[in-house]
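re: ur msg from earlier - yeah i can do the 5-hydroxybenzimidazolylcobamide complex, just paste it... oh wait u already did. ok heres what im feeding in:
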Amino acid sequence: MADKIFAELAELVNTQNLAGTVEKTKEAMEKGIPALDIVQNGLAEGMKIVGDRFEDGEIFLPQIMMSAKAMNEAMVLLTPELEKGDGSESKGYAISFVQEGDIHDIGNRLVSTMLGANGYDVKTLGVDVPNEKVVDELTAAKQDKVLLVGSALMTTSMLSQKDLMIAINEAGIRDKVKCMFGGAPVSQSWIDEIGADGTAENAAAAVLVADKLMVGDKAAAKEGAKVGQKAKA
Ligand code: HCB
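and the outut:
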């Protein structure tokens, strides 16, 4: 049953059907399907199809914008559910942002929401954030340990994550920052290349990776990066 609803949701996002996406999301919620599953297995899958069709020249920017609007409207219904925490103790302080030059914020907001619901105190800096601003925020943080949650959806913006790592090192604050970067182009080999700490394929995995990084278990964080990922055909 759930798989059918996920496929329908993905198709409604793909076809820019705003009202249909909202209605189907309500239906899924009424059927008791967990909010995070609705997002990851339905709406986000639709966005992946949209991205592929854009790359193939089948659709253009206005269509992506409408699909993003459909997903955002569904997120208005889902976010209060996603925000429901388990009442666990604070796991630490996190700073979340989207890299300079990049305005893709749907995934970053979702990751921030899930971290907030799972015990992190998250400060969100928004989109198109210059590295200097990120370093200033990290330096000003009073905590001994800070989780940095950076997103980049484009290969161009991803490149400045390398500069950010250099800037963090030069500022002498590397020891207190756990750097977790994500977004479609970010891979584990990129994380290793730039000397960051971890990545995650999706919001559920991001919580797992964050938990492991904050207790200094980098190996387990690597394992957690792909949790909840759908098997690739
Ligand atoms: Co945009 N766009 N876009 N876009 N866009 C992408 C990203 C492309 C891959 C599409 C493609 O060509 N296949 C492409 C980038 C190509 C590249 O560089 N390799 C692209 C392009 C080129 C562009 C423009 C340049 C197009 C143009 O103007 N000609 C332009 C750039 C604007 C800019 O940023 N300066 C542009 C604009 C747009 C919008 C505005 C229409 C819209 C964004 C709306 C918004 O976010 N407010 C948009 C969208 C929606 C997309 C796609 C279709 C979907 C992205 C999305 O929201 N996915 C995307 C295609 C794709 O990504 N495959 C396409 C859903 C969320 C839930 O997934 O991957 O963002 P997510 O996040 C996941 C995951 O990555 C992880 O967890 C999240 C939740 O599960 N995660 C983290 C994310 N951050 C993390 C941080 C961590 O620490 C850990 C995990």
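cool cool. The longest strand covers residues 92-98. ping me if u need the other ligands too
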